[in-house]
Design brief:
Elements (H helix, E strand, L loop, with lengths): L1 H10 L12 E5 L2 E7 L7 H17 L6 E6 L8 H9 L1 E7 L2 E4 L2 H5 L11
Parallel strand pairs: 2-3, 3-4
Antiparallel strand pairs: 1-2, 4-5
Helix pairs in contact: 2-3
Length: 122
C-alpha cells in the first residue's frame, strides 16, 4: 500500500519521501502532509483509533509539524461512521484504496486532483 500511495503522489507531480519514523510525507505549496499506512485488514474502528494515536505521536516528534495527517487503508473502514469520527476526534483524515482509485476525506488535496475517485451518480 505504501508503494501505491507513493506512486499516486508521484503521478500527480508531487514529491513523496519517507523515513524510519514516517511512512510517507510530502511538502508542497499546499503544506506538509504526513501519511501513516495501516496494514491489510486493519480497517475496524479500534485499528483506526490506534493508527490515529500513532500518527499524532509521530507528528509531535517531527521537527516540523504536519499541516495535515492521513491514515491510509487498503480497504474502506469497516464501520461507515468511523472515518468521520476519526477526523472529528483526532483531526486525522482517512484515505482508502478502491478498484477505481482512492476515496476518503478530500482525496484531491491528499493525492493531487488526478487521483480522486470519480463522483458517484446521484
Amino acid at each position: 500500500m505504501r508503494h501505491e500511495l507513493k506512486a499516486a503522489l508521484l503521478w500527480a507531480g508531487l514529491k513523496p519521501s519517507d523515513s524510519p519514523t514516517v511512512d510517507v510525507s510530502r511538502v508542497g505549496g499546499d503544506g506538509h502532509f504526513v501519511y501513516e499506512v495501516l496494514g491489510a485488514g486493519l480497517c475496524a474502528y479500534a485499528d483506526l483509533r490506534a493508527g490515529a494515536t500513532r500518527l499524532l505521536e509521530i507528528d509531535y516528534s517531527l521537527p516540523r509539524r504536519a499541516d495535515r495527517l492521513y491514515l491510509v487503508l487498503s480497504e474502506p473502514p469497516a464501520q461507515d461512521w468511523a472515518a468521520d469520527t476519526i477526523k472529528g476526534a483526532f483531526g486525522v483524515h482517512l484515505l482508502w484504496r478502491t478498484p477505481s482509485g482512492w476515496e476518503g476525506h478530500d482525496t484531491a488535496t491528499a493525492l493531487g486532483p488526478g487521483n480522486a475517485a470519480p463522483p458517484e451518480d446521484s
